[in-house]
Structures are given as structure tokens and as C-alpha cells.
Amino acid sequence: MRNIGEKIALSALRQIDPETSHKLALKALNMGLGPNAKIDMPELAVDLAGLKLSNPIGVAAGFDKNGEAIAPLMRAGFGFVEIGAVTPRAQPGNPKPRLFRLKEDAAAINRFGFNNQGMEVVGERLSAKRPDGVLGVNLGANKDSDDRASDYAKVMAHLGSLVDFATINVSSPNTEKLRDLQGVDALRGLISGVLEARSKSAPNTRVFLKIAPDLTEQEIEDICMLALDLKIDALVATNTTLSREGLTSIHKDEMGGLSGKPLRARSTEVIKLAHNILGEKLPIIGVGGIDSAQAAMEKLDAGAKAIQLYTGLVYQGFGLIEEIKSGLINRSTRG
Predict the structure, then answer these.
(1) Most exposed among 7, 21, 53, 263, judged by the fewest C-beta atoms under 10 Å?
(2) Rounded to the nearest 5°, which phi and psi values hold at 168?
(3) Rounded CA gap, 310 and 59, in Å?
(4) Alpha carbon distance 94, 170 (integer Å)
(5) For the residues of 195-233, what is the DSSP string, one character each?
(6) Region 279-300: what's the mean pLDDT?
(7) Each residue's pLDDT tens digit, 35-44
(8) Maximum mean pLDDT: which of 181-185, 295-299, 330-334
(9) Across 260-279, average pLDDT
């Protein structure tokens, strides 16, 4: 599915610093150098928490942190786009280098630390030109905040009316003690605050919850039951992992969250565990190690309603989107 031009571009981008490479990729998209996908076939359409997707493939948060390339990402063939994470105030994130390619493992490690331009700038950008398509924002907290839970509600209040869904992200490993908010008691208060902000400013915006792959089975069950109790609209499984099992790259011991192929099996396992608890009561978005049509179908077969890509794009390029679509269509025609 990948043409010779894309292969050359991917090869060239891998020769330079990965964070610089990513910025160049966003610039290229905005210059019109990205793909223009065909109109999706009806067989690919999905209803995700009441949102009508032309296909079940989304781009995960982190790829376009500040909402600078939403339109070209939509044109590239995604059924939905999630920007962010966005925090109340702009922040630079962690010191560089903070993104590492693990080529031998088809993986990446990042420790960005929610670097973004802040909700005011992102809000102005979305207000000036909101592209067509299903759009979400990943909610984050400032690193130096005295009340991180309230930060999520602030971003929801400010950006909620400009998007179709907002994802509560307490599962990033790159902001100190952020994952502590995944505890049921802390999470209940945080989610309640976001839902209250939604009721006042964006009642039609869906609220999703993104969880870590490193949770125990009991923690997954507790969070699923809480999501049902508070009527969260969807679960996103999963964020990056702190595990380094089986890695061979020279960068394997870098601090941060690991994404890509090594996360594939664990994220699928978490989806299965969550789906066994939730059934059809709450849709799941599968993320982690999707770099082929087969990997995408594993997530959907495990119980995911939709999927999101990130690291797979780094190694496979945007041709991966059409490859997955073709795989899904071929499977549906085979019955």
C-alpha cells in the first residue's frame, strides 16, 4: 500500500532526530504533501458512543498535540482525530532528548511530559477554523499544578464545545505521580469534575477515559465499574507502558512510556479484560502496537469498537490506514 515516494520520505525522516522528524512530518501535512484518501465505503462506518465515524481508524493523542494539522489528517483517511494532550497553561514539557526510536523493536519511547501550547492557543485555533470530521481532545494537567484534578475540568470547560469528545488522560507515565490519579477514589472525583464542566459548557460532548496497560486485573475491573457508574462514554485502552520486557534496542533503558509492537499483546489483553466486564455497555477504543491490518483486527476481535494509530505510522507511514481499511473490507466480504 505504500508508494515509492512515501518509502523514500520515511527513510529520510528516520535519518534525523525523531522529534525534529515529527515536526517536519506535521509541516509536510500542512503543505499538502500528505495523502488524499478515497471516500470510505459504507461497510467501514462505525457508531462510537453515538459519534458517526466513516471508518474505525483514528489518530491517537500526541501525534498532533496542538491541533495544527487536523484537516490534512482527516484527508489522510482517518475516521476521527484526537489532539493533545492539552493543559490549562502552555508548558515546554521535559528536557530534550525525550523521544527515542527503537528500530530493532519497531517501538518508541517518549517522555514528552505534556508539552503543548495551552488551552487558550488551541481554543483560538479551533474557533478560527474547525475542520469537518469527528474531533477529540486529550485532557491533561500542568506539571506544576496544585490541583491537577481541577485542570482537567478547566480544559473541558474551555475546549469541550469545540470538539466531539474529550479524553481524560491520567495514564501518561511522563508527568510525575499522574498515574496516582487512576486510583478509584481519586479518579471518581476527577471524572465527576469533568462531567460537571461538560454539563455546563458542552452537554453533547462525549467523555472518554484512557487507561494504562500496567494496571492489575483488579484495577482494570475497578476502573471499568467506576466508568459504568459515572456513565463515561468510552474507554481507551491503552496508553504507553513502563515495561521493557524483551527489548533489544540500545535505547531500551531510556525513561518514559514505551509504544509500538512490544505493547501489542498487552494492550489487546487489557481490551479483552475490559470487554469481558463491560460487554456492550461501554465501547472500547483499542490502542497499542497496531502496525498492520492483522494487528488492527486483533484489537477489534478482542472487543474494541474502534482503534487509534501512532507509532505504527512512524514505521509504516500513512499507507497503513488504507492497508487496514482493505483488510477490514476483505474480511467483511468474506462474511
Answers:
(1) 7
(2) -80, 115
(3) 6
(4) 17
(5) HHHHHHH-TT-EEEEEE-TT--HHHHHHHHHHHHHHT-S
(6) 98
(7) 999 999 999 9
(8) 295-299
(9) 98
Note the Cα 67 to chain centre separation in Å. Answer: 13
Task: Dump pLDDT digits (tens) for 120-161.
Answer: 999 999 999 888 999 999 999 999 999 999 999 999 999 999
Q: What is the pLDDT of residue 7?
A: 63
Whether residue 172 lies in the annotated active site: yes
Residue 165 contacts residue 112 (beta carbons within 8 Å): no
Q: What is the DSSP letter of 40?
A: P
Cα separation of 36 and 120, whole Å?
A: 30
Pairing mode, if any, of strands 257-260 and 107-110?
antiparallel
Asked if the model's pLDDT at residue 260 lies above 80, the reply is yes
Does 97 sit behind a cis peptide bond, omega within 30 degrees of 0 on the bond before it? Answer: yes
Task: Give the side-chain half-sphere CA count within 13 A for 177.
Answer: 9
Nearest to residue 226, comparing CAs of 170, 265, 175, 158? 170
Give buried/exposed letters for 111-124 (b at 16+ CB in 10 A, else e). bbbbbbbbbeebbe
Going 150 to 152 to 158 to 161, the CA torsion angle's sign is negative
Are 220 and 171 in contact by the 8 Å Cβ rule? The answer is no
Paired strand residues for 136 = 82, 165
- Give the C-alpha separation, 233 to 102, whole Å: 34
| Per-residue pLDDT, 21 | 94
The single residue listed with the C-alpha cell 465505503 is 41
Name the grid cell of 20: 525534529
Average pLDDT over residues 291-319: 97
Query: Is residue 298 predicted with pLDDT exceeding 70?
Result: yes
**Residues 49-71: b if buried by 16+ CB within 10 A, e if exposed:** bebebbbbbbbbbbbbbbbbbbb
Catalytic residue among 54, 145, 172, 267: 172
- Scored b (16 or more CB within 10 A) or e, 288-309 reads bbbbbbebbbbbbebbbbbbbb
Question: How many secondary structure helices (H) and strands (E) does the chain include?
Answer: 11, 13
